[in-house]
Design brief:
mainly beta, eight-stranded antiparallel β-sheet, six-stranded antiparallel β-sheet, elongated, disordered N terminus
C-alpha cells in the first residue's frame, strides 16, 4: 500500500513539473513597435509610408500608414523585433506589388536597447546636411540676347554664382494655379527641397535643407541659402 501511495505521489509531481514546463514555453509571438515621429507630411492618395526593421540584414515590414499623427503602434513578430538592428521608413506606392522597400527611404536609425533615434536616411543625406549652404541670384537669361539685359531680372531665380552654368528658372510662361506670370520673386522665400521619387505633387516636399530670402538686388548680387534643420523629419521608435 505504501509503495502504491509513493508511486501516485511521484506521478502527481511529474504532472506538476510538466505543466510548469509547458507554461514556460508560452513566450509571446507578437510585440508592439511604437513610432513617435515629427516633420512628416501626408503624401496624398497615391503613396504611403511604410516602416521596416532590419533583421539579419534583411528588411521586414512593420506596416504602412498615411496619417502623420503620432504616436502610432504596430504589431510585429516578437522574435524578429527583438533581433532587429535598424528601423527604416520608406515611401511606397499605395498599390504596391513589390514586397521589397522602395528606393525612397526617408528616415533611418539603429536600435540601442529598446529604442532607436531616427533621422534622415543616409540615402537622402549622403553627407552632413546640417552644414550645407549655398547661394542664388536673380536673373532671366532665357529671354536675353548675348551681352544684353532686358531689365527684368526680378523674374528669375538661379542657383550658384553668375557667369557659371547653373540650374534655375525664369517665371514667364505656364503659371501654376494662383499665380500670374511674369512673377516678381523679390521679397519671396527661396527653398531647395528634397523630393521623393516618383513625385505627384507640385508643392515642395517637407524636407527643405536650404532656405533663403530674395531681397531687392538682382545679379550680379548673390543671396545666401542657409541650412534649414527645422525641416528635417526625426523622432524615435520603441519596441
Amino acid at each position: 500500500m505504501m509503495i502504491r501511495e509513493m508511486f501516485l505521489a511521484l506521478s502527481m509531481i511529474g504532472l506538476i513539473a510538466t505543466s510548469c514546463s509547458s507554461d514556460d514555453d508560452n513566450t509571446p509571438t507578437a510585440a508592439n513597435l511604437t513610432l513617435n515621429l515629427s516633420g512628416l507630411e501626408e503624401l496624398g492618395n497615391d503613396f504611403r509610408y511604410e516602416g521596416w526593421i532590419i533583421v539579419d540584414g534583411s528588411p521586414v515590414s512593420t506596416g504602412v500608414f498615411s496619417s502623420v499623427t503620432f504616436p502610432k503602434s504596430f504589431t510585429v513578430d516578437a522574435t524578429q523585433l527583438a533581433a532587429a538592428t535598424t528601423f527604416v521608413l520608406s515611401i511606397e506606392p499605395a498599390v504596391d506589388s513589390d514586397p521589397a522597400p522602395a528606393a525612397t527611404k526617408i528616415l533611418a536609425g539603429d536600435f540601442s536597447g529598446s529604442s532607436a533615434n531616427v533621422g534622415l536616411a543616409p540615402v537622402i543625406a549622403n553627407g552632413d546636411l546640417n552644414t550645407s549652404s549655398g547661394t542664388f541670384f536673380l536673373r532671366t537669361p532665357t529671354d536675353e540676347l548675348p551681352n544684353s539685359n532686358n531689365g527684368n531680372d526680378q523674374n528669375g531665380v538661379w542657383f550658384g554664382i553668375p557667369g557659371a552654368p547653373v540650374p534655375g528658372e525664369d517665371f514667364f510662361n505656364n503659371a501654376p494655379s494662383g499665380f500670374s506670370f511674369p512673377l516678381d520673386v523679390r521679397g519671396r522665400t527661396v527653398v531647395i527641397s528634397i523630393e521623393p521619387s516618383p513625385d505627384n505633387s507640385p508643392a515642395p516636399f517637407a524636407i527643405k535643407p536650404l532656405v533663403g530670402n530674395a531681397v531687392q538686388e538682382t545679379a550680379p548680387s548673390t543671396h545666401s541659402l542657409d541650412v534649414n534643420i527645422a525641416s528635417f523629419p526625426a523622432g524615435s521608435v520603441s519596441r
